[in-house]
Amino acid sequence: EAGVTQSPRYAVLQEGQAVSFWCDPISGHDTLYWYQQPRDQGPQLLVYFRDEAVIDNSQLPSDRFSAVRPKGTNSTLKIQSAKQGDTATYLCASSFLQPNQAPLFGEGTRLSVL
Amino acid sequence: QQKVQQSPESLIVPEGGMASLNCTFSDRNSQYFWWYRQHSGEGPKALMSIFSNGDKKEGRFTAHLNKASLYVSLHIKDSQPSDSALYFCAGMPNYNVLYFGSGTKLTVEP
User: If you average pLDDT over every residue of chain B, what do you get?
Assistant: First the structure.
């Protein structure tokens, strides 16, 4: 079975540029999460979806960040006007909505903002 | 939002030794707990879950949960160099969202 697929694996930007991250979750998983992981820290939730609906986006850092999952499958996370403080790895995870199902993570996109 | 305190920040153990990692959680609604492991350049991978008070053993790994204290731990017996990684505890209130600790960097020296 294919895992969670993310692209690109790496991105390097100048401050002020925009970037999009793409996630293809495991087929059939109804719940999709985006996490931000600064270097040598734990993943921090940004937003999550159940099917196409945003359940909680209160942790998105600012209106520079947006996320969509239009058909309840793939998802895109976008940063408008990136800042140096956005430097981190962006992780996508997916799961079924069941307590004994561990969210499965992709390899992440490592973003550097210069 | 769930706060998760994890300790120690880093840990060095000799090959064959025992590694012990600890976490405390702030949200008393937390009922489901996980340990994840992350090797360099990879995404986190679920190691084991624990949902009931007491100990749960899977091979060389033993997780412990005390819900009254909101405390979980992970013990790795007979540590191997391949166990060197970042380890995260994570709590899930009401099978909703996982909140992660800050991580423990484990180094197993041959």
Answer: 93
